[in-house]
TrEMBL record:
Domain of life according to the entry: Bacteria
Disulfide bonds: 130-133
Residues the record lists as binding FAD: 3-18, 264-274
Oxidoreductase recorded as keyword: yes
Cofactor binding description: Binds 1 FAD per subunit.
The name this protein goes by in its record: Alkyl hydroperoxide reductase subunit F
Single GO cellular component term: cytosol
GO molecular function: flavin adenine dinucleotide binding; NAD binding; NADH-dependent peroxiredoxin activity; oxidoreductase activity, acting on a sulfur group of donors, NAD(P) as acceptor
Similarity-based family: Belongs to the class-II pyridine nucleotide-disulfide oxidoreductase family.
């Protein structure tokens, strides 16, 4: 068996692998796709100490760094179950099972998409999902935020300090965001909130977003809004569906519950990054969390082998 088996090869998984392997213990990493969400990212300007990089370039560096160590990397394999007996067993969709004395779950998350024409075509060309990442690209411009939940209204407040004007489009007839956020948003002079708005199309000029179309669900009319950026904030889904039948504690949003050492409720099972209850989902935060979980797992191993 592995001493530490990491499930996931994004920033959290890669950091966990390096920290574990540096302890000289048998380390494995299994992932569907090495790099995770970073592979889908164009410009990255908030990876501290690197003023600008691009997703695939950062992933190449991550892979190179992991390869410096004795880590057994298995890619193109999807984990489908977690069970425990005297060891922790990770079942793969291929039918194989990997066994380990400790496991770090780092399967990340994915943004819920609008599924409207133009969204994919203009992803990274005006269609964005992360205000912390891409907000500054729209300095002085008009943008839209799709979704009036907490993340949508937080994004609007955040963006309003950078961009010229923010229009929030909410599908329902009321906002789901906390009252205190709604009040803050309404107090800002450059946020407009439109209810009952169903986004139907991302409009572009061939190279970048120029606006969007939405249907007013009360009148049925189609409306156009001219914006340079569209921030989609309709949910971040943790990649933890495959853990629902295990004994692992998940929140009602499906996130894995962890403590400050990355430990879950199952002894020897740790978790890190966007798949967990960590409040902020960012590359540098996922790397710190992966390192924490690896040190937590190592600590667990030395304590359990002394018994
Ligand atoms: P992920 O990166 O999601 O990696 C998950 C890993 O788990 C992948 O290897 C995946 O293949 C694997 N996996 C998933 N399910 C399974 C399974 N069942 N079995 C096996 N493997 C599995 N953050 C920033 O800090 N700056 C930015 O500029 C920035 N821009 C972004 C732009 C976009 C378009 C997106 C989508 C995200 C952006 N983020 C940015 C957020 C950042 O990418 C994430 O916070 C970070 O990648 C999370 O790392 P992670 O390792 O937890 O998960």
């Amino acid at each position: 068996p592995y001493d530490v088996l990491i499930v996931g090869g994004g920033p959290a998984g890669a950091a966990a692998a390096i920290y574990a392997a540096r302890k000289g213990i048998r380390t494995g990493l299994v992932a569907e796709r090495f790099g995770g969400q970073v592979m889908d990212t164009v410009g990255i300007e908030n990876f501290i100490s690197v003023p600008y990089t691009e997703g695939p370039k950062l992933v190449a560096h991550l892979e190179q760094h992991v390869k410096e160590y004795d880590v057994e990397v298995i890619t193109n394999q999807k984990a489908s179950s977690l069970a425990t007996d005297e060891l922790i067993r990770i079942g793969l969709e291929s039918g194989a099972t990997l066994s380990a004395r400790s496991v770090i779950l780092a399967t990340g998350a994915r943004w819920r998409e609008m599924n409207v024409p133009g969204e994919q075509e203009y992803r990274g060309k005006g269609v964005a999902y992360c205000p912390h990442c891409d907000g500054p690209l729209f300095k002085g411009k008009r943008v839209a935020v799709i979704g009036g939940g907490n993340s949508g209204i937080e994004a609007a407040i955040d963006l309003a300090g950078i961009v010229e004007h923010v229009t929030v489009l909410e599908f329902a007839d009321s906002l789901r965001a906390d009252e205190v956020l709604q009040r803050k948003a309404r107090s800002m002079g450059n946020i407009e909130i439109i209810m009952n708005a169903q986004t139907t199309k991302v409009r572009g000029d061939g190279s970048k977003v120029v606006g969007l179309s939405y249907t007013d669900r009360v009148s049925g009319d189609s409306q156009d809004l001219d914006v340079a950026g569209i921030f989609v904030q309709i949910g971040l889904i943790p990649n933890a569906e495959w853990l629902k039948d295990s004994d692992l504690n998940l929140t009602r949003f499906g996130e894995i519950e962890i403590d400050s050492r990355g430990a879950t409720n199952i002894p020897g099972v740790f978790a890190a990054g966007d798949v967990t209850t960590v409040p902020f989902k960012q590359i540098i935060i996922a790397m710190g969390a992966g390192s924490t979980a690896a040190l937590g797992a190592f600590d667990h191993l030395i304590r359990s082998s002394a018994e």
